[in-house]
Amino acid sequence: MTLPVSIDSVGAACAHVLLTPDPLAKLMAARAVARNWRLGRLAHRFDAAMPDRPARPDKPELLPPNQMPKRGRIGSERARIAMLHALAHIEFVAIDLAFDLIGRFGAEFPPEFTGEWMRVGADEAMHFALLDRRLRQLGSFYGALPAHDGLWQAASETAHDALARLAIVPMVLEARALDITPATIVRFRGAGDEMSARMLQRIMTDEIRHVSAGTTWFGHATKRLGVNPAKHYQILVKRHFRGALKPPFNDSARRQAGLTREFYTPLAQ
């Protein structure tokens, strides 16, 4: 996929991704935008407003988190499909989260910030493609089941503040994935689904880098402000995150991503 010739800036390119509803078209747009940035075809200019909400396909039906059907035990194929569908939805929304972060806040950071989050956005598109392909191998597809909109609620809550966005999305939500994915991989292996288990391991390796991108740029911004990173993180999480940080934590993976215990253990419940 190539971008329209009228899209020649980072801001316009990010808005284009967010305003593309079709899943396949969105992942192709994400890849095209990341490629155009890498090839020097996009000016580091932020001349387009990001939408309050991204465009969404007709399916999946979006439900409040407390109305989502139970997935059941992961040993059944039906439950594995439900889990993979939930993960595919997370990655689909993560495409928009990466490009919204760039388009909304990129002007506050050097071009290296844009480059790093372009790579993250391309990763999220690849993850979605892997999960959707696996769903199809199992006789399903993205959109076949309902999904919830909790991830984008976090984006809306932090739309005014780059530091809040970095604290909540990569450093809380994506870090939580580092905590729970190893057990999910074990359950898929226990059910004899080695293909899905290997795919989730690959995705988790990338997610460590994504959390690292969050901690790196959070550190960059807090240094510029002259505030303590861990303490400021705790202030922002208390202010903007609905819920508690619940152990057990994958301290090893979090540490690889630069998210050390001093950040999150004071918030644990």
UniProtKB/TrEMBL annotation:
Chain spans, region Disordered: 50-70
InterPro entries per UniProt: DUF455, Ferritin-like_SF, UCP012318
Tree of life domain: Bacteria
Xref: Pfam families: DUF455 (PF04305)
SUPFAM superfamilies: Ferritin-like
Segments traversing the membrane: none
Protein name as it appears in the record: Ferritin-like domain-containing protein
Species per Swiss-Prot/TrEMBL record: Sphingobium fuliginis ATCC 27551
Lineage of origin: Bacteria, Pseudomonadati, Pseudomonadota, Alphaproteobacteria, Sphingomonadales
